[in-house]
Structure formats: C-alpha cells, structure tokens
Amino acid sequence: MLYELLYSLNEYYFPFNVFRYITFRTVLAAITASLLTFMLAPFVIERLRSFSLTQQIREDGPRTHISKAGTPTMGGILILASILTTALLWMDLRNPYTWVLITATAGFGLIGLSDDYLKVVRRNHKGLRACHKFALQIALATGISLFLYHNPLDPYSTKLSVPFFKRWLLDLGLFYIPFSVFVVVGSSNAVNLTDGIDGLAIGLVAVAALASGVFVYISGHARLAQYLQVLYLPGTGELTVFCGAMFGAALGFLWYNAYPAEIFMGDVGSLGLGGALGTLAVITKHEIVLALVGGIFVVETVSVILQVLSFKLTGRRVFRMAPIHHHFEVKGWPEPKTVVRFWIVGIILALLSLSTLKLR
Fold first, then answer.
1. Cα gap 212→279, rounded to integer Å
2. pLDDT, tens digit, for every residue of 82-122?
3. Dihedrals phi, psi of 167, to nearest 5 degrees
4. N or C: which terminus of the chain has fewer CB atoms within 10 Å of its end residue's CB?
5. Rg (alpha carbons) of the chain, rounded to whole number
6. Chain centre to alpha carbon of residue 257
7. Which residues, in sequence order, are bridge partners of residue 161?
8. What DSSP assignment string belongs to 306-342?
9. Quick check: helix, strand or coil at residue 95?
10. In whole angstroms, what is the distance from residue 71 CA to residue 65 CA?
C-alpha cells in the first residue's frame, strides 16, 4: 500500500523512483519489521502476562527449564503481525506470489494459534490432537501446492531443481503436489520442534530468512539467474521484500527472546515462520537447498524421529532427551552456549547453501 503510494509520486518528483527497486524496499521492510517488533514487544509482553497467557513447563523436560514457568508465550502473534503488516506496506500487492506467501504465513500461524489456545487458555497440555493439526496443515499446504501447480506464470511448475548441477531438472509431474506439501508441512513442524530454548529457533529463522532472500532475489532477476545458472522465475524477486521483513521481525523479537527470555513465540510463531520458509522454497524451486539452509531444523526433526523409533522398537533411547538441543542441555551444556553453538552451525550451513550458486 505504502509502496504503491510513494512510487506513484515519481511522476512529480523523480527521487521517489527509488521505491521501484526490490533491494531498497527489502531494507525498508527489514527496518520496519524490526522496529515494529522491538517497540511493541513490551506492550505485548505486559498484555500476555495480564491475561495469564504464560508458558506451561513439561514435567518430562530439562529440570533447568522449571524457572521458565510463567513467562509470557504466544509472542508469535507479534512476529507474524509485524511481518504481514510490513509486507502489506512495502510489497507489490498485485503480485500473486505476495498473496501466496501471506496466506501461508497467516494460515500456519492460525493453526499454531489454535494449538496455543488449547494449551495455554484451556490448560490442555497436548493442545491440538496431532491428527487434527496435521490435517489442517496438509489441507493448507495442498491448497498452496495446487495453486502453484496450475500457476501460468511458472514455466517450471512441476520441476525440481537439483543443486550443484547446471539445469538438472526432475519433472515430478503430478507428484509435485504431495512433494511440495511434504516440504511446506515438514518445514513448519521442523521450526516448531526447534523452538525449545531461549533464542534458538528465532535466531536460526533470521539466518534462514537472510539466505532465502539471496536465493529468491536471484531467482527473480533475469541476468543474475542466467549468470548463475539458476531457474529464472518471473515475479518471484518480489518475495525478497518478505524475507527482509522476516529477518527484521526475527531480530526485533530476539532482543526479548534471548536468554533469559522475556517472551516465547509459541506455536503460532514457529508454525507460521516454518510454513513461510517452506513456501518460499517451493515457489523458487530451492526445496533441496532448504534442507541445507535449515540444516539445524532438519537435524532437530530427525533426532525426534530416531528417538521415537528407537524407543518403540528397542526400548532404548538414542539421545538423553529429544529434540537434540535438550540432549546437550542434559549433558551439561549451559543453555546460552547450546544456542550460540547451534547458531554457528546454522550460519555455516547457510553459507554452504549459498556456495551452491557457483558450484554448478
């Protein structure tokens, strides 16, 4: 909205032409989202506390987490509100990809909000039943996938791009739909599983958003895409602005979510952010690269799967506690050290993912 207004003024004053550039609006989006989150967080924290929307600590979790009881949760409402408000201000609302991403973020956020509501307000520690949660996620992801499958703007709507190889495309045909559903739902839940200690998930989301922004910008830039042998997807460059908003909101929230956290994002934040990252990857054909960009999210998910399978099949646990960040906590790593070390690995993985742009 603000983008359309300001850019239209270039007819009267040429400097307003700067608003047509995606890079400029991405910077504005990052600043806007970070300021919105940072400035509104104290008010949101106070309101959540006044409504007793506070964290309930699992009895089977690390004993060091007992002190976190009573910390306001559902802070993801603030994160998503900042991202979506910023997107509406600085993105081209005539671009269909803008609305796909807004729908994915808001939709997965609402599913998380329902889960948080049952846990926090209704005092049902299990929240939404797993079958109901997955059914809602799959339904939303299927709707997004069907739109992209029939998208006339995308000449590669059923193709899977393989990194490290020039123009190696796998045509998945109709199988593209369940594959993209798997990517989006898997990404959403992977971020959710990672959100277990102060600052861990939101810091990694910031890293992933920054790396995803690079891929998205290149995919939507004809010359860069041709030079780097990346699929050129007209219109997708606009999503770089959304990545900037996600990065800015993550930084603003991290100020209050860093150890010791003053607020938690809850499922409304983790499911919404994870759904957005997965949708970005599907739109720009970087599904495989997402597994590297969000490598920590993948490891966290795999650790839970291995733990459950091992215990059911053998009665033994692979890790002292899952997800894997709890394993290191139980081993004696202080929480801040665990978070920073996971961030370091996440940054390295993001840099490795960017290297795939040249290794083709």
1. 11
2. 999 999 999 999 999 999 999 999 999 999 999 999 988 88
3. 55, 30
4. N
5. 20
6. 16
7. 169
8. HHHHHHHHHS--SSSSSSHHHHHHHHT--HHHHHHHH
9. coil
10. 11
- Do 148 and 283 touch, CB atoms closer than 8 A? yes
User: With the C-alpha atoms ordered 349, 307, 134, 130, is the resulting torsion angle positive or negative?
Assistant: negative
Interaxial angle between packed helices 200-219 and 295-314, expressed in degrees from 0 to 180 and rounded to the nearest 10: 130
- Distance CA(115)–CA(102), nearest Å, equals 20
Nearest to 105 by CA among 88, 117, 129, 125: 88
Q: Are 74 and 266 in contact (CB under 8 A)?
A: yes
For the stretch 310-339, pLDDT in tens is 999 998 999 999 899 999 999 999 999 999
Q: How far apart are CA 339 and CA 199, in angstroms?
A: 7
| Encoded tokens for 26 | 């991405």
Tell me which residue has tokens 């970087």. 286
245 in Cβ contact with 85 (< 8 Å): no
3-state secondary structure 23-37: HHHHHHHHHHHHHHH
pTM of the model: 0.94
Element (H, E) at 219: helix 200-219
